[in-house]
Amino acid sequence: MRIVLVGPPGAGKGTQAAYLAKNLAIPHISTGDLFRANISQGTPLGLKAKEYMSAGQLVPDSVTIGMAEDRMDQEDAAGGFLLDGFPRNIGQAEALDAYLSGKGLRLDAVLDLEVPEDEVVKRIAGRRICRADSSHVFHVIYNQPRTEGVCDVCGGELYQRDDDREDTVRKRLEVYHSETEPIIDYYKAQGLVVTISALGKVAEVTQRAMEALPSRDAS
Belongs to which family (predicted)? Predict the structure, then answer.
């Protein structure tokens, strides 16, 4: 099964992608992982991406598309994959269609995780990260530490990342609405979009997604 996962920042795409990929026995391909792997391995695409990033510039679509195609060409993705963070715009979506069409393949579904904007802001702006270990994550509403501002695990100071501040979150949402959200209509025209609510417990959202996805395998 070949799936694209879309949704605003804070929708839980990374968490759901991991569970869905495991349940469907297909690799989870995330843009972040692609960039980290290519840069750390010093691939030609990774070196190009690093040049742009070091200069504070956006990485061109051609580089991102190249990384995604290389990853989809790997053996473990022959039977399907779950794309998370790619495609990010119409140009990337058209490139993905062309890539799949050239191999006689197509997407099975585009899973749209729907979350109200106020909930997105609440989820992200409420996060607090431990300075000593960034894997220790708390939330002012959903996962409060026993002592305010102090990590339950190691006693480190909890802080709010700049990326998590409300004004930054709302700017990220503006970018999502202008650049990424249009791909939903693009895929709706192909009859591929399945929209589910991303509210509730992680397991509930995963079950909702599994029930909504088509059962056929396009491999």
Answer: Belongs to the adenylate kinase family.
Annotated binding-site residue? 13: yes
How is residue 194 written in tokens? 């399945």
Is residue 217 included in any domain, yes or no?
Answer: no
Dump pLDDT digits (tens) for 85-135: 999 999 999 999 999 999 999 999 999 999 999 999 999 999 999 999 999
Residues catalogued as catalytic: 13, 88, 127, 161, 172
Q: Domain of residue 131: give its range.
A: 2-212
Q: Measuring CA to CA, which residue among 90, 41, 50 is closest to residue 70?
A: 41
Amino acid at 188: K
16 is in an annotated binding site: no
Residue 63: closest CA among 75, 52, 79, 78:
52
Residue 7 · residue 13 · CB < 8 Å: yes
Known binding residue 191? Answer is no
Number of domains in the chain: 1
- Domain membership flag for residue 219: no
Q: What is the CATH number of the domain that holds 145?
A: 3.40.50.300
Tell me: cis bond preceding 87? Omega within 30 of 0 counts: yes
Assess if residue 78 is contained within a domain: yes
Q: Does 71 carry a binding-site annotation?
A: no
Strand order from edge to edge, sheet including 137-139: 137-139, 127-130, 158-159
pLDDT in tens, 196-213: 999 999 999 999 999 999
Residue 61 within any structural domain of the chain: yes
CA gap 156, 124 in Å, rounded:
20
